[in-house]
Amino acid sequence: MSAPSIVRRWLFTVCGLIIFMVVFGGYVRLTRSGLSIVEWNVISGIIPPIGETQWQAEFAKYQLTPEFQKVNTQMTLAEYKFIFYNEYIHRLVARFAGLIVAIPLFVFVAKKIVPWRKSGIYWLIVLLFSAQGAMGWYMVSSGLVDRPSVSHFRLTIHLLLALLLLAITFWQALRLGTPGYRWQRTPLNWLSGLVIALLVVQIGYGGLVAGLKAGHVSDTWPLMFGYWFPPGLLSVVQPWWRNLIETMPTVHFVHRWFAFVVLLAASTLYIVVNKRADAAAIRQALRWLLLLVVVQITLGVSVIWFHGPIVLALLHQATALLLYVAALYVAFQLGHITQPQEAAAQVRLAT
Q1: Cβ distance 31 to 75 under 8 Å?
Q2: CA atoms within 13 A on the CB side of 165
């Protein structure tokens, strides 16, 4: 196996770990397990409590938190063990993922599989992975002081950082599989970039919805509280723009309808690219992109109608990540479409 292939497989593995960590993090959040471990012990935290005494001590720490005192006042030790192990596995997998990211890179650089002068992008991936772990604890710490939930801003930043890490890792893996690839600034690239940007906004709003638990404010669709546009969405707090990121009904409303902005942008990209004679190779990817947008909207509506069951909520989250990866792939592949001006120039050079 060639050196680029080995590195490429490693990068795709890292992408899979990022996606798994985000979805599993969603499960931890939905089961209210994320605040069960009140300390971040990188080394000693690898071993869970052993014996009744250690479990009682760990439970006593949790009983001092706002979540126990305001939400889980009747929780038993057995119930605490369930949420503890959810968060424990989450952190254990994060440690394992960190090793998979860091150790192979050290080996690649030491064996010159990755030349030192070209290793910057890979060290950036390691740095972002470390920052993601630090941000995770910073997020958790916000729910251990005076509120029984984490800051929705920190949760959203944690999610957006994962998207950035996934984008860099996936793009680099694609580049390694395409020698000589050169990104071109063309209208198609800008349009595909717009689709990605809109997706990031929509997924970011999903983070705000999750952090605020705004998904539960309305269980009807398409109407919300009996209105297409409920009154007062921009007047709960002042200035008005704070409602877009702080008020539960407003954040929920934006998230449910901004999905159709993403659909419109993806459809426009498909129509524009489909008219080109040199775009045959990318059409299938565009069809998958559109299909995933439709599936994602359907799952979003289902989550509303069925009051947010965990399975549907996790499928909704996982599909968002697959949709994001599909949009990145489309943007990358559009760089291969030979522009008419360049094709004419190549013909002139050949003759």
Answers
A1: no
A2: 28
Q: Which of 103, 52, 98 is nearest to 78 (CA)?
A: 52
Taking alpha carbons only, the member of 19, 8, 318, 300 closest to residue 181 is 8
Alpha carbons within 13 A on the beta-carbon side of 15: 21
Q: Report the distance separating Cα 286 and Cα 323, nearest Å.
A: 11
Distance from C-alpha of 50 to C-alpha of 286, rounded to nearest angstrom: 52
pTM here?
0.91
Instruction: Please report, in tens digits, the pLDDT of each residue of the chain (351 residues total).
Output: 677 889 999 999 999 999 999 999 999 999 999 999 999 888 878 999 999 999 999 999 999 999 999 999 999 999 999 999 999 999 999 999 999 999 999 999 999 999 999 999 999 999 999 999 999 999 999 999 999 999 999 999 999 999 999 999 999 999 998 877 777 777 888 899 999 999 999 999 999 999 999 999 999 999 999 999 999 999 999 999 999 999 999 999 999 999 999 999 999 999 999 887 667 778 889 999 999 999 999 999 999 999 989 999 999 999 999 999 999 999 998 876 544 444 433 333 333
Compute how many other C-beta atoms are within 10 angstroms of the C-beta atom of residue 240: 12
The dihedral of CA 134, 43, 39, 27: what is its sign? positive
Residue with tokens 């390694």: 176
Say which DSSP state 2 is in.
-
Q: Name 192's Cβ contacts closer than 8 Å, sequence gap at least 6.
A: 269, 327, 330, 331, 334
Query: Contact at 8 Å (CB) between 166 and 325?
Result: yes
Domain residue ranges in the chain: 1-181, 184-351
DSSP 8-state code for residue 181: -
Q: Is the dihedral of CA 28, 34, 39, 42 positive or negative?
A: positive
